[in-house]
Automatic annotation (TrEMBL):
Superkingdom as given in the UniProt entry: Bacteria
Coiled coil, from the record: none
InterPro entries hit by this protein: Uracil-DNA_glycosylase-like, Uracil-DNA_glycosylase-like_sf
Name the record gives this protein: Uracil-DNA glycosylase
Uracil-DNA glycosylase-like domain sequence ranges: 31-173
Length: 205
């Protein structure tokens, strides 16, 4: 299936994102083969920098490097999918300023919820950055009345164990952007979190 044929946004009225840049994954995927959902922040301002546009896109290059840092060699989005990883963003439109309001993240989480519902065999949610953490917490709170990930700095909460319906939830740092702009300590923690995700899947399988 191709996700872009199944989800859409009917409001597109959020004031702090560019609704003209609405972007979702546009690749044929077999949802039942996906074991890890890697949820990032927002699409790039330029579409050609998006994960699914090109393996040389900015988003894909830093994601490839993050996996290589963890000891997993990939060179393309196809390699990622073959490993059972689906990467998407929590918010589907580029942001207009540095921060995104809680109101926008909450509204966009409804679209994210539509998307992740297609992946019935997921074992790990890998949440890359605060926006992804907040969006998923909104989803879980609607379903259960409570958040899964507590408030707090990522470096303080990332080593605790979190689960939702038997699925492992890993809060991490944003892996997109220029590699030289991602702090070395954060790159190290991202690589550790990716490795944790695969360890969990492999031990369950």
């Amino acid at each position: 299936m191709n996700i872009k044929d199944h989800i859409n946004c009917n409001h597109l009225l959020c004031s702090d994102i560019n609704s003209n840049g609405f972007l979702v994954p546009s690749k044929d995927i077999e949802p039942e083969k996906i074991k890890i959902l890697m949820i990032s922040e927002v699409p790039p301002v330029n579409r050609e920098d998006y994960f699914y546009f090109s393996d040389e896109s900015d988003y894909m290059k830093t994601t490839i490097q993050a996996f290589k840092d963890s000891g997993i060699t990939i060179d393309s989005i196809n390699d990622l999918i073959d490993l059972g990883v689906y990467v998407t963003t929590a918010v589907k439109c580029p942001k207009l300023q540095y921060r995104i309001s809680a109101k926008t993240i909450k509204k966009c989480s409804e679209i994210l919820e539509q998307e992740i519902n297609y992946f019935s065999n997921v074992q790990v949610y890998l949440l890359m950055g605060d926006v992804a953490i907040k969006a998923m917490n909104y989803i879980w709170k609607r379903k259960t009345g409570k958040k899964i990930i507590p408030n707090g700095s990522t470096y303080k909460i990332r080593n605790s164990e979190y689960y939702y319906e038997g699925k492992k939830v890993i809060p991490s740092y944003l892996q997109t952007g220029k590699n030289y702009l991602i702090e070395k300590t954060k790159r190290k923690m991202i690589s550790e979190d990716i490795k944790k995700a695969f360890d969990f899947v492999n031990n369950k399988g």
